[in-house]
Amino acid sequence: MLTQIDFLDVVRLTPLVSIDLIACDAAGRILVGHRRNRPARDTWFVPGGRIHKDETLDAAFTRIAEAELGIASLARSAARFEGVFEHHYSDNFAAEPGVSTHYIVLAYALTLTGTAPVGRPEQHSHYLWLTQAELLAHADVHDNTKAYFR
User: Where does the Nudix hydrolase domain start and stop, copy by copy (predicted)?
Assistant: First the structure.
């Protein structure tokens, strides 16, 4: 496992690869969480997370779905691949001046059934279900999330 100093060097020098989950309910509303952490702190964002070194895409998807949505054993094959996106942020997890964050994001869409998911409280303070029109009109939904629907 990387120390925070080592991870900051990674963020400084390379793009990170992640998976975002575009989770919809049966009514077509999209799940967004209010981010607690940098980058994108205090904005609404779809759930997601980094892919770890030597982790397969399938394992990463399952781990991220459990951590972010509270859904255990969800297979990547249950979602639809929406494409590759780039996210650029002027800040970083450590608030270190002059260090930007660059993500290469693999976006996957899925429809959830049942009760609202419970994610990690250290990542999101609370969740909202928004229609696509509400999401696009909401001033605090991050532009990188809005890009999935434009």
Answer: 12-150
